[in-house]
Every structure is written in C-alpha cells, then in structure tokens.
Design goal:
Layout: E1 3-9, E2 13-20, E3 26-33, E4 39-40, H1 42-56, E5 63-70, E6 76-78, E7 88-89, H2 97-107, H3 109-116, H4 125-135, E8 145-147, H5 149-157, E9 176-178, H6 179-182, E10 188-189, E11 194-195, H7 197-204, E12 208-210, E13 224-226, E14 228-230, E15 237-238, E16 252-253, E17 257-258, H8 259-267, E18 273-278, E19 282-286, E20 300-303, E21 309-315, H9 319-329, H10 333-341, E22 351-353, E23 370-372, H11 381-405, E24 412-416, H12 423-432, E25 437-440, H13 445-459, E26 469-473, H14 479-490
Parallel strand pairs: 1-5, 5-16, 5-17, 9-14, 12-13, 18-24, 24-25
Antiparallel strand pairs: 1-2, 2-3, 4-7, 6-8, 10-11, 15-16, 18-19, 19-21, 20-21, 22-23, 25-26
Helix pairs in contact: 1-5, 2-3, 2-4, 4-7, 8-13, 9-11, 10-11, 10-12, 11-12
Length: 494
Amino acid sequence: MALVTGVDSSTQSCKVVVVDTVTGAEVRTGRALHPEGTEVDPDAWWQALLAALEEADGLGSDIEGLAIAGQQHGMVLLGQDGRVLRDALLWNDTRSADAAQDLIAELGLEELVTRTGSAPVASFTGTKVRWVRDAEPDVVPRIAAVALPHDWLTWRLRGFGPDGDSPLGPVLGELVTDRSDASGTAYWNPTKGAYDLALFKRMLGRPAREAQPDGTGDGATDAVVLPRVLGAAAAAGTVHPAHLAGAEHSITLGPGAGDNAGAALGLGAEEGDVVVSLGTSGTVFAVAADAVADASGTVAGFADASGLFLPLVATLNAARVLSSVAGVLGVDHDGFADLALSAEPGAGGVVIVPYFEGERTPNLPTAKASFHNLSIASATRGNMARAAIEGMLCGLADALDAVRAAGVVPRQLLLIGGAAQNGAVQETAAQVFDLPVRIPAPGEYVARGAAVQAAWVLSGSRPAWQVDTLEDRASDHRPLIREQYRAALASISF
C-alpha cells in the first residue's frame, strides 16, 4: 500500500492525514495546536508540524510523498543567516490596512488589479511588506528573503534553515512555493505567471529576485529573495534524512498550496464547481479556466493548485452569525436548526443583515448587524432563526454574483464547513442559491488536498479519489428571500 502525507498548517492548528494513494482512504491522522494571535513566531508552526507528523507517523517508512497546504498571506521575513527577523504577521492581522490604501492611492485600483489579479487589502503579504517598510524601517536592510508559511515549512523539511539549527543551512535560493500561494501575495501576476518585481520594490523599497537553485537567488546581491514558483505536479525536493529518524527511505515533497486551493484539490473540484465554505468567516471560490481580474476589487483573482485559477470572495460573517442568534434565542445547535425549520422560507418577512463583525465584502468595516420587518406577528423565534440563516447565505449569494460577474459560469455548489452540517442551513441553501447543492461529508479537505498533490507529484497524474457526499439537493430557488434581503440593505445608510 503506497501512502502519502497531507498537511494543513492552518491559523489554529496543524492537521496531518496519511492517505492510501490507490483508494484515497485515510489511514492515520495527527494534530497539534498553534498559538493564538495575529503575530506568531514561525518556530511554533515548525514544532506543531513535527508533533502532528509524529502522532500520525507521517514520516514513517511506508510514506512515499508529502505536501503542505497552509494559511495564505502570512509574511515570514528571513535574514541572510536564515533566521526569522520578526514574528510572522498572519492574514488576519489588519495593521497594514492603511498601507493597502496607500498603494491604491499611488498606483490606482485598476492598475493593481490588472497587475496582480486582486485589490490590495490588509490580509495580503504585499501590504504587510509595505507596513514593515513604513513602521519598522530598521528591519528592512536586514531582509534577505520573504516567504509564506507553507514555503518556510517545506524549506525546513528539506533540511534548510538557520545556521547551526538545520542540516543544510540557510540556502535561501532553495525557497520554493506554488502558484496558489504566490497569487495571494499581491506581488505576483497570475496571468503572466510571474512576480511583479517592480511592484515588490515599491512595497519594500528594495529590489527582489525569484530564488534559483543554482545560487543566483542566494542573497549574493542586494535583491530580496522570493521563493521560486513551482508547477502543480513539480517536486520540491525530498525530506532531509535528519527528519526521518534514521529510516533509510526517501519522501518526495510536493510544492504545497494555499489553504483554499488545497481544499479545492481535496474536494476534487473541477471547472464549474463553486465552493461555499461556512467557517468562522465565509468564502466563495470557483475553479476557472481563465484568470480573473475584477476591476471593482470584490473578487480576488487567485491561481489554484492544479494549473487553473481560483477566483475568490471572502466575507467576515458566517457561522458566528448562527451561534450569535442561537445565543440570543437561548438554544443549542440542534434547537436552533429545529426553530429555523419550523418557519417558512422568507421567515415571515423578517430579515437579518448579518454584519456582526463589520464586513469585508462589501467593504464595511464599521457596519453592525440589524433586524428588519419585525412585527407582532412576525417576531417569532422560528422566524428569527431562519432569518439568521437566510441573511448569512444571502451575503454569500452576493459573493457568488460577483464571481459570476467576473466571468465564471458555475454548474454546482459544494457546501462545506462546520455550519454546512446544519440541516436547516442545507435546506435554506437550496432556496437561496439558484444552483444544485452538494454537501460533502465532513473532512479535513485542506490536508486531503495536500495529499492529492503529493500523490500527483509521485505518479505524474492527479488522483481521482472519491469524495463521500452526505446529500445532494436540487435547486429549490425562492427569489423572495434575496429580494427581501436586498430591500433591507437598501434601507440602511452605512
């Protein structure tokens, strides 16, 4: 039985799955927590990776391949000696919001979207680089390389790292990444498949070059090293024997991926599939054949991990909308679902605009949530529960509209994330979205996607592992739900 290891190094934890390359069955798993916060020492990720791999025996003698999918956008700054210069800023660190606005003011939104596929926001690596230039100028001259979380972990597994703490030392020219994660930096062009080095120089105030294994990217000049971007099925190297506890075998490493691109691989998503993820935040992304450059900045024109593209919209308000309203109603998860299912579609006219955390899409950071159309007759607990679900899903349906407007033609919707297991959410999704809805079985799809990549690198062909489905729902579209939601939005002055 040939086995591969897939890793999801997420914001909260490191998850590992060991998968049979023939059947796609999970054989072993491991997990280790990451520290909380938006600013983290990358060594915590390294220690968690080693712990999770040990628990899963993810580097065992029966493992032939491994790949790491990780949280996108995190900024890892390395010095010439391979040491991390400051704690990494994660995607959810918003201190670079002003830096994003500065870039837009200097270059214009349309030009930035044309050059990178995305409007710069605080989440992206490039705006964090700009923030460092302005807020920590003493760090800038010492920066020899800028990496992303999964790049850095892959580099460490290959045996590279700080002087004295790694078998092969700080060979910065060996840093590698993939298209999906590179496209989330805001200084890589998905259409051209290349870094925009002039844009990076504007961000940091120093020139950069793409890493090369022949040493031309090893920092011999003043240029900052950016990881070499590998193709979907290209090998990144092998795990260094020092990490294999003396085992005499070789483990081939894949190039890795960003987390959403990893999830798309794990779900077996293909062109025309739209994924709606209902986690703490909400995400809508689709696999597309062509690069997307949305001049409005709503849709991020990312690349995927298969050689295609992954236009994406993120919202701040998803599963927490449901837990917040459930708390107000004094019910648990199951009780909330029962209440929502007791109400009719449209919730008797009750609408919740679900901006409990402000909102990212649309860009309304100071907005608040609000109830609309409450009357003596309509103000029932059931209507309030259903309105919470409808409001959350209407926000994501607006995101899907933006993806469509960018040129994507969807054929079905895959509903994933913790809230997707709620029966009331499943029923309502078929009424809000005008697409068939498939609910895959719960799973670690980001880690599984990394395993797909590892198997692909080994065999040269993408595996077609079966994804178990809990339910398929035909579209039961009820336009009234979104009509009410739009009317409520139009009545608010933000």
